[in-house]
Amino acid sequence: MKVICGLGNPGERYRLTRHNVGFRVVDLLADRWGLTGEGRLRDGAAVLEVRHAEHGRVMLVKPMRYMNRSGGPLRAALRHTDVDVTSDVLLVTDDIDLPLGRVRLRRSGSAGGHNGLRDVIASFGTDEFSRLRIGVGRTGEASSHVLATFRPDERDLATEMVAVGADAAERWLRSGIEEAMNAFNGIDLGG
User: Fold this and answer.
1) Could you tell me if 111 and 68 are in contact, meaning their C-beta atoms sit under 8 angstroms apart?
2) Is 6 exposed, middle or buried (0-12, 13-18, 19+ CB in 10 A)?
3) Would 61 disulfide with which of 5, 94, 106, 181, CB 3.0-4.6 Å?
4) What is the DSSP letter of 102?
5) Domain annotation covers residue 190
6) Is the pLDDT reported for residue 30 higher than 90?
7) What's the distance, CA 157 to chain centroid?
8) Is residue 191 part of a domain?
9) Would you say residue 69 lies in a domain?
10) How many domains does the chain have?
């Protein structure tokens, strides 16, 4: 089984914020695959499981605690599976150090100042898992920026970036992290 986990904050108030691009990628994948509903709540995470014709068994996960508490719900959702976090998990999150219009996939690495990633790393005791960072840019104070919605002039590009993120996640499922990195790390829709 492969797992795609999008990070975000639960609740309508945060749905379209910069911090929730991870949730939006997971939601778009569910839509593409004809899955309905938010998924069943499992130990603090919304979980949808599918046996996909092309990708095999896939679990889509959205931790339903606030961003900086994402690790526990993800770990709990995977507790009764045979998933190896170092090879079977792709974490999707926002990145203020990437400009809007860019994505970056990595095989592993530090949290880079991202509290959601930091909590996942602490919960699993490793930073050896694939991640897909969606650029949301940076203006002003970081926490205010990520908790704000995209400006009207950014919304189309943000929606396009979510679609690119979903494409990258599907490439990861189909071909692995190296091929996904080669195909998507050079994309710059904003430039």
Assistant:
1) no
2) buried
3) 5
4) B
5) no
6) yes
7) 17
8) no
9) yes
10) 1
Please tell me the total number of residues recorded for the chain in this structure: 191
Q: Which helix (H) or strand (E) holds 135?
A: strand 130-135
Look at residues 76, 83, 78, 111 and name the one whose alpha carbon lies nearest to residue 97.
Answer: 111
Model confidence at 186, pLDDT cuts 50, 70, 90, reads confident
Q: What is the pLDDT of residues 169-184, one digit of tens each?
A: 999 999 999 999 999 9
Please give the single-letter amino acid code of residue 139. T
Residues in a beta bridge with 49: 59
Positions marked active-site: 19
Q: Is 140 exposed, middle or buried (0-12, 13-18, 19+ CB in 10 A)?
A: exposed
pLDDT at 60: 96
Confidence of residue 39 (pLDDT cuts 50, 70, 90): low
Q: Is residue 70 part of a domain?
A: yes
Domain containing residue 71: CATH number: 3.40.50.1470
Question: In 3D, which of 80, 76, 78 has the Cα closest to residue 90?
Answer: 78
Buried b (16+ CB within 10 A) or exposed e, 97-130: ebebbbbbbbeeeebeebbbbbbbbebbeebebb
Residues 6+ away with beta carbon under 8 Å from 175: none
Asked if 190 and 102 count as a contact pair (C-beta separation under 8 A), the reply is yes
Locate tokens 């930073």: which residue? Answer: 127
Q: Provide the 8-state DSSP code for 21.
A: H
State which residues form the domain around 173: 2-184
Could you report the per-residue pLDDT of 58-86, keeping only the tens digit for each?
999 999 999 999 999 999 999 989 999 99
